[in-house]
Write a sequence for this structure.
């Protein structure tokens, strides 16, 4: 068990301290998270990687106050996750785009803005701004079914960015897309991250994706869900796609794989 | 074009079977009459007679069509013999009952989706209400309402509502629960209230279910209106028309009222379908 402390000059944006989460099921208790401690600093891009059941999504959901931990503590922007949510601390991107089919792309992005009570003029301005940010300018009046899967997922990222949350939580956002689209979106996501300076929590199954995107890679393992390794990336902030063929990249990927193996991720 | 051919083939087959059945069923009376009069009839004469009886066991299609023509186009709509007049009586209570039933169904569904207590307490009663034969409960509703001074259109409309609220409840409960966990979680990340989740997510999600159940409900409402006209000894409406027809053995009248009812039902369901197309297109859900 390793406990990592971020070397952040300021106070961490997200701080989990000995977090436990146990689900009571008919087959007995399931330890989704056990003794998870992690600090995430402002502007970091943190990936969570591990096999199914390692608790990476559960951890993200704890940050978002979609799950209540059964032990330990977690703070977001120095508040409880519940308070942080009410203060619009984060935008959440799910595995599926989940756009409402009865709303246009613009209408979908307006959804959180309507709920949060932004003025109409402000809404229109923000929709325009985030659509440009995800390269979807001109698609405001289109319906979701008129867009490809990758474009839909970009629209859902725009929706999460619309209300200026400092934290972006992404739960396998590109998991359902093919690899070519995925590469393209990874590149775009890095640009977006550089442009906005958001703190990003990113859950993935893919080692190259995690290494390519992150400043910090959190390797997790199941039964009970826990952190087995935290890797600070040594890759430069500028990352063209072919950085993935450099020895440095492969070194980090190797260390991730070692971490997964140490957590018995490859056992039957 | 091919599907038109298929449709026409089926219609032609039904009409042919109907004619054959009419000849078969009506020929007994023809032969009995002939035997009593001591006349021998050729096969052609028997067939001709079965097509033109005044009170056939099964009227031939053209007799029904002729009766429909006579009682719709050739009668003033204010006439007691006009099927348009009787159709309007039935239609008005159908529509009122359908509206009451739909509104009640939506309200119940909203309650059931939002309250576990209502889910457990109301749903079994809603199901039980539909297991009672409407023919048994219709006279009681009319008698009870009559005793508190409610007469005319409303008791009939209540019976229509009684039949039509159920499909709306079932459809809307399903529809309002259609959003999956992810969509509900998304609303939660915005700290959306129950009201916002209802108006922005649940209600729009339920629209396809809503229209499907309205189609069932409006047909049920028409059945309810017709059944409601039977026990009250009503003299107006398609149900009354069928009832008097059966008193006097006017089978042609019964069948024409039946067809009028079917036509009415088809129009109503078509109307709901049209409303569905327009609404879903406006919502951007018709691709």
């Amino acid at each position: 068990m390793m406990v990592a402390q971020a070397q952040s000059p300021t106070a961490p944006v997200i701080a989990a301290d000995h977090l436990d989460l146990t689900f009571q099921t008919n087959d007995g208790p399931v330890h989704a998270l056990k003794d998870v401690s992690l600090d995430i600093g402002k502007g970091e891009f943190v990936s969570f990687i591990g096999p199914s059941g390692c608790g990476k999504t559960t951890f993200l959901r704890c940050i978002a106050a979609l799950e209540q931990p059964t032990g330990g503590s977690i703070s977001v922007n120095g508040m409880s996750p519940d308070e942080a949510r009410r203060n619009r601390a984060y935008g959440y991107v799910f595995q599926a785009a989940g756009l409402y089919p009865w709303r246009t792309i613009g209408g979908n992005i307006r959804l959180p803005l309507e709920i949060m009570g932004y003025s109409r003029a402000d809404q229109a301005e923000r929709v325009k701004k985030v659509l440009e940010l995800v390269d979807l300018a001109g698609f405001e009046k289109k319906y979701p079914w008129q867009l490809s899967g990758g474009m839909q997922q970009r629209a859902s990222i725009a929706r999460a960015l619309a209300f200026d949350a400092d934290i972006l939580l992404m739960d396998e956002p590109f998991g359902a897309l093919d690899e070519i689209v995925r590469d393209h979106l990874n590149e775009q996501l890095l640009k977006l991250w550089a442009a906005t300076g958001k703190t990003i929590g990113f859950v993935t199954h893919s080692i190259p994706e995690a290494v390519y995107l992150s400043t910090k890679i959190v390797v997790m393992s199941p039964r009970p869900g826990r952190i087995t390794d935290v890797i600070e990336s040594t890759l430069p902030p500028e990352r063209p796609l072919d950085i993935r063929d450099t020895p440095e990249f492969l070194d980090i990927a190797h260390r991730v794989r070692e971490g997964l193996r140490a957590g018995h991720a490859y056992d039957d | 074009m091919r599907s038109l051919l298929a449709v026409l083939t089926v219609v032609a087959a039904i009409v042919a079977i109907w004619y054959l059945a009419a000849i078969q069923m009506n020929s007994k009376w023809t032969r009995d009459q002939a035997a009593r009069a001591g006349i021998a009839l050729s096969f052609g004469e028997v067939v001709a007679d079965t097509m033109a009886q005044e009170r056939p066991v099964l009227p031939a299609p053209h007799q029904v069509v002729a009766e429909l023509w006579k009682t719709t186009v050739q009668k003033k709509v204010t006439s007691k013999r006009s099927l348009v007049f009787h159709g309007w009586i039935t239609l008005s209570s159908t529509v009122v009952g359908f509206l009451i039933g739909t509104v009640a169904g939506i309200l119940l569904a909203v309650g059931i989706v939002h309250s576990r207590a209502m889910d457990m307490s109301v749903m079994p009663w809603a199901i039980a209400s539909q297991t009672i034969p409407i023919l048994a409960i219709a006279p009681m509703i009319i008698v009870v309402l009559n005793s508190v001074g409610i007469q005319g259109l409303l008791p009939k409309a209540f019976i229509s509502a009684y039949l039509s609220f159920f499909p709306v409840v079932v459809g809307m409960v399903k529809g309002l629960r259609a959003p999956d966990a992810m969509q509900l979680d998304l609303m939660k990340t915005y700290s959306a209230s129950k009201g916002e989740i209802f108006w922005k997510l649940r209600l729009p999600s339920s629209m396809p279910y809503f229209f499907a159940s309205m189609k069932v409900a409006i047909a049920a409402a028409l059945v309810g209106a017709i059944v409601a006209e039977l026990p009250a000894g009503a003299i107006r409406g398609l149900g009354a028309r069928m009832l008097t027809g059966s008193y006097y053995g006017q089978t042609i009248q019964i069948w024409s009222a039946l067809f009028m009812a079917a036509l009415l039902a088809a129009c109503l369901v078509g109307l709901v379908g049209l409303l569905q197309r327009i609404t879903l297109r406006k919502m951007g859900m018709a691709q």
